[in-house]
Amino acid sequence: MRPDRSPCAGPSAGCRNCVDCATARADLAPLRALRPLVALPLAYRNQTLRTAAAQIDHFFAPSAFLRDRYAEQGFDGARIQVLENGMDLQRLHAGGEAARPTTGGLRVGFLGTLAWQKGPHVLVDAFNRLPPDTTATLTLHGSGTAFPDYAATLRATVRHPAITLAGPVPYNDVGRVMRSFDLLVVPSLWYENSPLVIQEAYALGIPVVASNLGALAEKVIDGQTGRLFAPGNSAALAALLQEISAQPAQISAWQRQITPPPSMEDHALELAAIYRRHLAPPR
Same domain for 269 and 220? Predict the structure, then answer.
Protein backbone atom coordinates (compact mmCIF):
# COMPACT_ATOMS: atom_id res chain seq x y z
CA MET A 1 0.00 0.00 0.00
CA ARG A 2 1.17 3.51 -0.77
CA PRO A 3 1.33 6.05 2.10
CA ASP A 4 -1.98 7.47 0.81
CA ARG A 5 -3.53 3.97 1.27
CA SER A 6 -3.83 3.21 -2.43
CA PRO A 7 -2.50 -0.09 -3.86
CA CYS A 8 1.01 0.27 -5.28
CA ALA A 9 1.50 -0.46 -8.98
CA GLY A 10 5.19 -1.22 -8.49
CA PRO A 11 8.47 0.72 -8.36
CA SER A 12 8.93 3.66 -10.70
CA ALA A 13 12.08 4.21 -12.69
CA GLY A 14 14.95 4.32 -10.24
CA CYS A 15 12.65 3.36 -7.36
CA ARG A 16 12.01 7.01 -6.51
CA ASN A 17 8.43 6.33 -5.48
CA CYS A 18 9.74 3.65 -3.08
CA VAL A 19 11.31 6.46 -1.06
CA ASP A 20 7.82 7.68 -0.11
CA CYS A 21 7.01 4.31 1.46
CA ALA A 22 10.42 3.93 3.08
CA THR A 23 10.10 7.36 4.69
CA ALA A 24 6.38 7.21 5.55
CA ARG A 25 7.16 7.60 9.25
CA ALA A 26 7.07 11.26 10.26
CA ASP A 27 10.61 11.30 11.63
CA LEU A 28 11.98 10.10 8.27
CA ALA A 29 9.96 12.42 6.03
CA PRO A 30 12.82 14.97 5.65
CA LEU A 31 14.79 12.32 3.75
CA ARG A 32 12.41 12.76 0.82
CA ALA A 33 14.34 15.92 -0.06
CA LEU A 34 17.22 13.56 -0.82
CA ARG A 35 15.03 11.24 -2.91
CA PRO A 36 17.63 10.42 -5.63
CA LEU A 37 20.20 9.38 -3.02
CA VAL A 38 17.76 7.47 -0.81
CA ALA A 39 16.46 5.63 -3.88
CA LEU A 40 19.91 4.22 -4.71
CA PRO A 41 20.00 1.45 -2.07
CA LEU A 42 16.38 0.57 -2.89
CA ALA A 43 17.21 0.25 -6.58
CA TYR A 44 20.29 -1.82 -5.69
CA ARG A 45 18.14 -4.12 -3.57
CA ASN A 46 15.67 -4.63 -6.42
CA GLN A 47 18.43 -5.36 -8.91
CA THR A 48 19.98 -7.87 -6.50
CA LEU A 49 16.64 -9.65 -6.22
CA ARG A 50 16.24 -9.72 -10.00
CA THR A 51 19.73 -11.16 -10.41
CA ALA A 52 18.95 -13.89 -7.88
CA ALA A 53 15.59 -14.62 -9.52
CA ALA A 54 17.31 -15.14 -12.87
CA GLN A 55 19.02 -18.20 -11.38
CA ILE A 56 15.72 -19.87 -10.48
CA ASP A 57 14.34 -22.49 -12.87
CA HIS A 58 10.73 -22.50 -11.70
CA PHE A 59 8.48 -20.31 -9.59
CA PHE A 60 5.07 -20.99 -8.11
CA ALA A 61 2.30 -18.45 -7.60
CA PRO A 62 -1.02 -19.30 -5.91
CA SER A 63 -2.92 -17.03 -8.33
CA ALA A 64 -2.73 -15.79 -11.90
CA PHE A 65 -3.00 -12.27 -10.49
CA LEU A 66 0.29 -12.66 -8.62
CA ARG A 67 2.04 -14.22 -11.61
CA ASP A 68 0.86 -11.39 -13.85
CA ARG A 69 2.07 -8.71 -11.42
CA TYR A 70 5.58 -10.18 -11.54
CA ALA A 71 5.44 -10.44 -15.34
CA GLU A 72 4.45 -6.77 -15.52
CA GLN A 73 7.61 -5.96 -13.56
CA GLY A 74 9.79 -7.75 -16.10
CA PHE A 75 10.04 -11.24 -14.62
CA ASP A 76 9.70 -14.22 -16.97
CA GLY A 77 6.04 -15.18 -16.67
CA ALA A 78 6.70 -18.45 -18.51
CA ARG A 79 8.72 -19.66 -15.50
CA ILE A 80 5.92 -18.86 -13.03
CA GLN A 81 3.39 -21.65 -12.65
CA VAL A 82 0.04 -21.01 -11.01
CA LEU A 83 -0.50 -23.66 -8.35
CA GLU A 84 -3.27 -23.33 -5.79
CA ASN A 85 -2.36 -23.90 -2.15
CA GLY A 86 -3.36 -27.18 -0.58
CA MET A 87 -5.66 -27.25 2.44
CA ASP A 88 -5.72 -29.40 5.55
CA LEU A 89 -9.29 -30.57 5.00
CA GLN A 90 -9.25 -32.84 8.03
CA ARG A 91 -8.55 -29.86 10.30
CA LEU A 92 -11.37 -27.84 8.77
CA HIS A 93 -13.91 -30.62 9.20
CA ALA A 94 -12.86 -31.42 12.78
CA GLY A 95 -14.17 -29.89 15.99
CA GLY A 96 -17.85 -30.73 15.80
CA GLU A 97 -20.71 -28.62 14.55
CA ALA A 98 -21.02 -24.93 15.33
CA ALA A 99 -23.93 -23.72 17.40
CA ARG A 100 -26.98 -22.97 15.26
CA PRO A 101 -28.66 -19.61 15.77
CA THR A 102 -32.35 -19.37 16.53
CA THR A 103 -33.10 -16.38 14.26
CA GLY A 104 -33.08 -18.32 10.99
CA GLY A 105 -31.67 -15.29 9.13
CA LEU A 106 -28.58 -14.91 6.97
CA ARG A 107 -25.40 -15.50 8.99
CA VAL A 108 -22.61 -13.28 7.67
CA GLY A 109 -19.04 -13.73 8.90
CA PHE A 110 -15.61 -12.09 8.74
CA LEU A 111 -12.47 -13.96 9.71
CA GLY A 112 -9.13 -12.14 9.75
CA THR A 113 -6.94 -9.59 11.45
CA LEU A 114 -8.72 -6.41 12.54
CA ALA A 115 -6.57 -4.19 10.33
CA TRP A 116 -7.45 -1.29 8.06
CA GLN A 117 -6.12 -3.00 4.93
CA LYS A 118 -8.40 -5.99 5.57
CA GLY A 119 -11.43 -3.67 5.44
CA PRO A 120 -13.58 -4.85 8.39
CA HIS A 121 -14.73 -1.24 8.84
CA VAL A 122 -16.21 -1.38 5.34
CA LEU A 123 -18.25 -4.43 6.36
CA VAL A 124 -19.35 -2.88 9.67
CA ASP A 125 -20.42 0.31 7.90
CA ALA A 126 -22.34 -1.74 5.34
CA PHE A 127 -24.15 -3.70 8.05
CA ASN A 128 -24.94 -0.50 9.95
CA ARG A 129 -26.90 0.57 6.86
CA LEU A 130 -29.25 -2.44 7.06
CA PRO A 131 -32.68 -2.02 8.68
CA PRO A 132 -32.65 -2.56 12.46
CA ASP A 133 -35.21 -5.34 12.14
CA THR A 134 -33.19 -7.36 9.63
CA THR A 135 -32.93 -11.07 10.42
CA ALA A 136 -29.33 -11.14 9.19
CA THR A 137 -26.45 -11.29 11.69
CA LEU A 138 -22.79 -10.34 11.36
CA THR A 139 -20.00 -11.88 13.42
CA LEU A 140 -16.43 -10.63 13.06
CA HIS A 141 -13.69 -12.96 14.29
CA GLY A 142 -10.19 -11.54 14.52
CA SER A 143 -7.48 -10.22 16.76
CA GLY A 144 -7.10 -6.50 17.36
CA THR A 145 -3.75 -6.66 19.14
CA ALA A 146 -1.67 -5.79 16.05
CA PHE A 147 -3.54 -2.51 15.48
CA PRO A 148 -5.20 -1.68 18.81
CA ASP A 149 -6.16 1.88 17.88
CA TYR A 150 -7.89 0.71 14.73
CA ALA A 151 -9.65 -2.11 16.61
CA ALA A 152 -10.92 0.37 19.22
CA THR A 153 -12.24 2.67 16.49
CA LEU A 154 -13.91 -0.28 14.79
CA ARG A 155 -15.72 -1.25 17.99
CA ALA A 156 -16.87 2.35 18.45
CA THR A 157 -18.47 2.40 14.98
CA VAL A 158 -20.70 -0.62 15.63
CA ARG A 159 -24.30 0.60 15.75
CA HIS A 160 -26.40 -2.28 14.42
CA PRO A 161 -27.62 -4.62 17.18
CA ALA A 162 -26.96 -7.70 15.03
CA ILE A 163 -23.17 -7.09 14.85
CA THR A 164 -20.87 -9.07 17.16
CA LEU A 165 -17.09 -8.72 17.52
CA ALA A 166 -16.16 -12.17 18.71
CA GLY A 167 -12.36 -11.99 19.04
CA PRO A 168 -9.67 -14.26 17.58
CA VAL A 169 -10.18 -17.91 16.65
CA PRO A 170 -7.67 -20.67 17.51
CA TYR A 171 -6.15 -22.24 14.39
CA ASN A 172 -7.69 -25.66 14.96
CA ASP A 173 -11.11 -24.11 15.57
CA VAL A 174 -11.36 -22.23 12.27
CA GLY A 175 -13.46 -24.90 10.56
CA ARG A 176 -16.00 -25.15 13.38
CA VAL A 177 -16.39 -21.37 13.57
CA MET A 178 -16.64 -20.95 9.81
CA ARG A 179 -19.38 -23.57 9.64
CA SER A 180 -21.51 -21.12 11.64
CA PHE A 181 -21.51 -18.79 8.58
CA ASP A 182 -23.83 -18.87 5.59
CA LEU A 183 -21.68 -16.28 3.84
CA LEU A 184 -18.08 -15.09 4.25
CA VAL A 185 -17.18 -11.47 3.43
CA VAL A 186 -13.61 -10.51 2.47
CA PRO A 187 -13.65 -6.69 2.13
CA SER A 188 -9.90 -6.18 1.65
CA LEU A 189 -8.54 -2.82 0.48
CA TRP A 190 -5.11 -4.07 -0.56
CA TYR A 191 -4.03 -6.73 -3.03
CA GLU A 192 -4.56 -10.28 -1.82
CA ASN A 193 -2.51 -12.99 -3.51
CA SER A 194 -4.65 -16.02 -2.64
CA PRO A 195 -6.42 -15.66 0.71
CA LEU A 196 -6.45 -18.93 2.61
CA VAL A 197 -9.71 -17.83 4.24
CA ILE A 198 -11.47 -18.10 0.85
CA GLN A 199 -10.08 -21.59 0.32
CA GLU A 200 -11.21 -22.55 3.81
CA ALA A 201 -14.68 -21.26 3.03
CA TYR A 202 -14.82 -23.13 -0.27
CA ALA A 203 -13.61 -26.31 1.40
CA LEU A 204 -16.69 -26.06 3.61
CA GLY A 205 -19.05 -25.08 0.79
CA ILE A 206 -19.49 -21.47 1.96
CA PRO A 207 -19.97 -18.74 -0.69
CA VAL A 208 -17.92 -15.55 -0.51
CA VAL A 209 -18.61 -11.86 -1.08
CA ALA A 210 -15.36 -9.99 -1.72
CA SER A 211 -13.80 -6.76 -2.97
CA ASN A 212 -13.29 -6.66 -6.72
CA LEU A 213 -9.55 -6.30 -6.27
CA GLY A 214 -6.42 -8.36 -6.87
CA ALA A 215 -6.80 -12.13 -6.76
CA LEU A 216 -10.13 -11.79 -4.95
CA ALA A 217 -11.74 -11.16 -8.35
CA GLU A 218 -10.09 -14.36 -9.56
CA LYS A 219 -11.10 -16.55 -6.62
CA VAL A 220 -14.72 -15.37 -6.39
CA ILE A 221 -16.67 -15.89 -9.60
CA ASP A 222 -19.26 -13.14 -9.50
CA GLY A 223 -22.77 -14.57 -9.53
CA GLN A 224 -21.54 -18.18 -9.35
CA THR A 225 -19.61 -18.70 -6.11
CA GLY A 226 -20.53 -15.39 -4.49
CA ARG A 227 -20.48 -11.71 -5.39
CA LEU A 228 -17.95 -8.93 -5.93
CA PHE A 229 -18.27 -5.26 -5.00
CA ALA A 230 -16.17 -2.15 -5.51
CA PRO A 231 -13.38 -1.97 -2.89
CA GLY A 232 -14.30 0.27 0.03
CA ASN A 233 -17.88 0.85 -1.21
CA SER A 234 -19.90 0.07 1.91
CA ALA A 235 -23.15 1.21 0.28
CA ALA A 236 -22.72 -1.32 -2.55
CA LEU A 237 -21.87 -4.04 -0.02
CA ALA A 238 -24.95 -3.16 2.04
CA ALA A 239 -27.14 -3.48 -1.06
CA LEU A 240 -25.64 -6.91 -1.80
CA LEU A 241 -26.20 -8.13 1.75
CA GLN A 242 -29.79 -6.87 1.66
CA GLU A 243 -30.38 -8.64 -1.65
CA ILE A 244 -28.89 -11.93 -0.45
CA SER A 245 -30.78 -11.76 2.83
CA ALA A 246 -34.05 -11.32 0.91
CA GLN A 247 -33.24 -14.18 -1.48
CA PRO A 248 -31.52 -16.88 0.61
CA ALA A 249 -31.96 -19.43 -2.18
CA GLN A 250 -28.96 -17.79 -3.86
CA ILE A 251 -26.73 -19.30 -1.16
CA SER A 252 -27.71 -22.85 -2.15
CA ALA A 253 -27.24 -22.08 -5.85
CA TRP A 254 -23.73 -20.72 -5.21
CA GLN A 255 -22.83 -23.67 -3.01
CA ARG A 256 -23.51 -26.07 -5.87
CA GLN A 257 -20.99 -24.23 -8.07
CA ILE A 258 -18.12 -24.07 -5.57
CA THR A 259 -15.05 -26.13 -6.43
CA PRO A 260 -13.28 -27.26 -3.24
CA PRO A 261 -9.54 -26.51 -3.03
CA PRO A 262 -7.02 -29.33 -3.35
CA SER A 263 -6.14 -31.27 -0.24
CA MET A 264 -2.67 -30.88 1.25
CA GLU A 265 -1.90 -34.44 0.10
CA ASP A 266 -2.91 -33.75 -3.52
CA HIS A 267 -0.93 -30.49 -3.46
CA ALA A 268 2.19 -32.31 -2.20
CA LEU A 269 1.88 -35.00 -4.88
CA GLU A 270 1.65 -32.37 -7.62
CA LEU A 271 4.65 -30.51 -6.22
CA ALA A 272 6.67 -33.73 -6.10
CA ALA A 273 5.80 -34.51 -9.72
CA ILE A 274 6.94 -31.05 -10.82
CA TYR A 275 10.23 -31.43 -8.93
CA ARG A 276 10.82 -34.81 -10.58
CA ARG A 277 10.31 -33.30 -14.04
CA HIS A 278 12.78 -30.50 -13.35
CA LEU A 279 15.38 -32.75 -11.74
CA ALA A 280 15.27 -35.38 -14.47
CA PRO A 281 18.51 -35.46 -16.51
CA PRO A 282 18.11 -33.95 -19.99
CA ARG A 283 17.75 -36.48 -22.78
Answer: no
